[in-house]
Each structure stands twice: as C-alpha cells, then as structure tokens.
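Protocol step 4 of 5: obtain the predicted structure for the target chain.
Materials: sequence only (see below). No template structures provided, no constraints applied. The aim of this step is simply to have a reference model before the mutagenesis design in step 5. Sequence pasted as it appears in the construct record:
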Amino acid sequence: MKEDSANQIPAQAGADRYAAYVGLDVHKDTIAVAVALPGRDDPLYRGEIAHEPKKVRRWLDRLSAEFEGALLQFCYEAGPCGYGLYRRLVAAGHDCQVVAPSLIPKKAGERVKTDRRDALKLARLLRAGELTPVWVPDAKQEAMRDLTRARDDMKGQERKARQQLNGFLLRHGHHWPTGKTRWTATHFNWMASIRFEQPWLQVVLQEYIDAVKAASRRVADLTTQLMQALPNWSLAPVVDALVALRGIDTLAATVLLAELGDISRFESPKQLMAYLGLVPSEHSSGGRRRQGAITLTGNAHARRMLVECAWSYRFPARQTMHLKRKAKAAPEQAKAIAWRAQKRLCGRYRTLTQAGKNVKRVCVAIARELAGFIWDIVRQEMPRLRAGNGMVAR
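Step 4 output (structure tokens):
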C-alpha cells in the first residue's frame, strides 16, 4: 500500500486538534496500546487488551472518559486483521489512520522488536505526523474487492491445476499438438481417450481432469456472481465509462475500480502512477541522476491488471466493430478520451519497440500512461455520478 494525500493530516493542525495519540499494535488475539500526549514527553505503554469487539468497546469507553470525551487519534498498521477496528473507532467519534507498514520510519540500529516497542513507536510517530496512511474502503467497496480477489485466487488454482495435468501427460509421452486450442471439448475428449498400461495411472489422469474442471467451474461461478453484483455497485457507471478504453473489458474495469476505489481522489495522474508502483525508482545526488526499475509499491492486483490491458496497444490504432460494441454504454466524452489514448499509446508502443526496447518494459511503460487516461475518464465521470446520487465531493 502507498500514500494517499487525501488522508494526510498536517502535524501542526493535529497538535491543536487531538487530546492524545494512540498507537495500536494489532494482532488477531491481542492489541498492544500506547498513548502519547501532545508535546515532547515520551509515550506511555498501557498494556494489552483482547481483540474482541465487546472488550475493545469497553476499553474505548474508559479511554474516552479518561480524556473527558475529547477527540483522540488512533493508528495501526495495515495487515491481515483488516479494517474492522478502524470502522469501530471512527464510529465512536474518533479519528483513525491505517498506516502503510513499508513506509514506517525505521532506525538503522534497531534490532529488538516487540509489541510494546511497536505500539510506543506508532504513538510517537503519529504525534510527529511521520506516518503515511492508506486509503480505507467502505464496507461495500471492500466486499466488491474481496469478490474480485476471490475470483483471481480461483483463477490461480485453475492455472495450477492445468499445469499439473499438462506436466503429468508430458511425463508419460502425451502432449496436445502445438498451435491447437487447449481446454476445449475436443481437448478434454482427447485426454479422456488416453490409455495407460497401469490402471492406477488412469485414476491419476481422471483426478487431474476433474480438478481442472472443478477449478474452471469455480472461476465461472465467481465471474457470474461478479457480473450480478456489478449493477448494484455505486461505481457501475464508471465501469461502463472505462470499458471504452481499448484492452479494458467489464471484468478488468471492475477489478481496477474495486482495488483503487474512487480514482478521482488523486490530484494528478502522476500520483496514481506512483500509487500503482509504475514509476521508475531513482537514486540521484548532486549532478548525477540514476533511475532504475519501477518501484513495484502500492496495489499489485491493479498493477498486474493494467499491464495485461496494456498488451492490446501493440496493434495499430483503429475503431473496430468490437471496440464500438463494447463502448456502447460509455459516455461520448469517455469515447473521445479512449480514441486519444489509442492514438497515443499505439504510436508509443511502435516507437519504443522500433528503438530496440525490450517489449516487456515497453508494455509497462504503456501501462503507466494508460493509468493517466483512466484517471482522466474517472475525473470526468465522478462529478456526474455524485450529482446523480446526491453525493458530496470529498
């Protein structure tokens, strides 16, 4: 995860606003608590509490009473425990930050790590304004994101099952002709017709085939669930707008928006590109400037989907019947941006490949620029969506 400037609070403003800063080291069973008061005094460790909703609520009531109901700011690291604690703290009327673990400042000489030290460190850095918060989705947004990630997990299982089946057949001298489409009815009929001398190998083959079919059914079922949930999603009109872009279908647009949420919260395309980890790393000093590979920070799911979509721009720019049909529900402004993106990115791909650049690096460069066009479409669409839903812009 990476920085979201919309969630940042200036340190000086926070000094006048909060009665205390609370660092939480959150685990599945326990939460270590440290409290830092405004000023320069060291934070105080308050012990551990059980990570259970009732006990957290009672602890929060005691802490609020201790500070006479004043506004408190909490923070904890983003991790496997999710955002439930964040939502409980915000619902109680306090502020909370879920911070990016990779961006927490760390001293070079630190060699001891405990829950107590982590909580004290978080409280101290929160008071100093040195932590980088991540964007926290609401419950519906998180549900859609979990649905897309579940489909991606099932797709990975399907891919693994297919590799295992192909490896088994190849070890025993059977392989499907190169150039012919795999995983069709004809392909499955061919595999079912294979005979082995040892009967137990026949059982192994059938089990591998059944595993592939079961994985494919799970992918198909989750894809159906995703398409059924899409019309009731608040960002469904933005999905229709993004589909106007070449290389982005309904599934890809849904994944991108489920992972990134309201992209219009980024003030510029550069911020979105940096959030996705698609910008070059850099180590410059004095008059020397050195750039390396892309940073690979931020949301890996969205970055991978963007790179997959970028491969479509290796072909010449044109308005095919397929592109016109899939962009039918998109607004005219989105279609104009999509055509501008085609002309820019297809030409960019051709220029870079003709210059001898590695095609994989070229595709990443195209994905970076594609993120800018996605940002443009969302920035055009979100004001209309908010106006139609009576939403207030953040």
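Step 4 remarks: Confidence is low (pLDDT under 50) at residues 1-15. The beta strands are 20-26, 30-36, 44-50, 72-77, 95-99, 280-282, 291-294.
Proceed to step 5.
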